[in-house]
Amino acid sequence: MPKQVYDVIVIGTGAGGGMAIKTLCEAGLKVCALNSGRRLDPEKDFRNHRMPWEMKYRGFGDPKTRMKDTPDFLDSEYNKGAWEHDIAYTTAPGTNWMWPRCSAVGGKTNFWGRSSARFGDIDFKAATLDGHDADWPVTYDEIAPYYTRVEKMIGVASTVQNRPSNPDGVYLPPFNFRCLDWILQKGSEKVGVPYLPDRLAQLTVAHEGHPACHFCGDCTFGCEVGAFFSSPWFLLPVAEASRNLELRTNAIAKNILVDENGRASGVAYIDRGSRQEYEVRGRVVVVAASCIESARIMLNSKSRHWPNGIANSSGQLGRNLCDHLYATVASGYLPQLLGQPSFPDNVGANSIAWMPRWQNLEHAHDEKFVRGYSMYPDGGCSEFPSYYDQIEGFGSSFKHEIKRRYPAPVSLTLQAPTLPSDKNFVDIDPVAKDSFGIPKARIHFQWGKNELQMFEHAKQTSADVLQAAGGVLEYAADEPETPGYSLHETGTCRLGNDARKSVTNRFGQTHDVANLYVCDASVFLNCTDKTTTLSILAFTLRTSEYLIEQFRRGDHK
Hints:
The chain contains twelve helices and 16 strands. The protein is of the alpha/beta class. The strands form four sheets. Strands 1, 2, 5, 6, 7, 8 and 16 form a seven-stranded mixed β-sheet that branches. Strands 11-12-9-15 form a four-stranded antiparallel β-sheet, covered by helices on one side. Helix 1 runs parallel beside helix 12 (533-552), helix 5 crosses helix 12 (533-552) and helix 6 packs across helix 11 (449-468). The longest helix is centred in the last third of the chain and has 20 residues, at 449-468.
């Protein structure tokens, strides 16, 4: 019997995949979604207010199965099985990279940090301002209506701030500042650094059938009530209600299939349990597997039509890899808060405030570096007193000092964007394969001079802010976190009007293969000082509606 041919096959169910699936299904298209892992059950798989001492491994997870060099919050006892343990990449000599992959349905949206600022014209036209790389083929005015629709859809808590680097949107009431925020804000004002409510896709009031955050602090381990945006809570239920979605779980995409003309005709995937290979056919394929994985799938999609990977006539597939440089650039404590009553400062498990880009806004080279960075302050009564090893004593005196200092810790975390570089890219390892027999991605990456200058600048600025706030500086990072730590990598399938210099057009449609689209951060030209999720949602909504219009015109028969 002939195999079913779906209208669209979507690889991935995270921010990009989830938005594409919802939008396409609502339009009446028949969609088959492939997800590399299982569905999560919030009642069983999320933390559900359990404390570390209630867990067998104190929340850290079994040391025998933990992913190597992965932050504790990404692979813990609270979300066992959600993260991918089969290492799918190698690194080139001189490269140090961390690539945690969430295989669960919904991907990283289950556990993300929720900061949701819009990109602005200062980002889209950065090359015009500073002469580096190229402008985006989209303007802010074009994408702004999609940002607005997404913000109304998912709920973003913040305030109107009237800043040139950060366009304002449609917001729910912001999270309240904590004592430490008011103190740090005063210090920031003295130094000339903005200190404002962050833009958070976390509900301060009930919204679109979802309850407000109840301040349990478990966000990083998954919200069991859906009080912040995730694809499984906000997008996939709408798609399933349409009856136009077939979701295949534990389906690991191997490569994109092509017909006799080199057009996408389907996807080959490996069943995680049986390890057998299957094929699914579709009129259109949407790749939304995340920046590196999408490039890996497309580079592995070789045929006589595409000997270097599908839609790669430009040679740009996998190139232009960018990331956010993260580092705790300052930490210490505020003496004003010593001995104050304990208060659940991390009730939302987010930083509440942010220090948005303030460098090079009018003149591209006011600083030694081009473009700019943002920072996220945090502190107060966290679940575990990280300062325990900075206190001397033993027994009751030690406990007393832990308690006295509990409300006082503060830290500042840098988020600095890399510039595109010919040295930073993804290709396919010619030898290594993962446990499913799929060739691994090979990552080439080094921090550049520009972002390292931002790192040094941020260290000094943070120290100045802390001092101006009356705080005590105890620690500053000697080096950044390992590349990949941010989970904000971009660039491997970049947008562009010139098919010789880009992989996709301004709508995320590949130049070479008209029925192949990309819907994740890989299409972004570079990192900005903002996080990527809100923009993935906005760009994917735009791409999905463009795709629907192509169906209406009869272009995808």
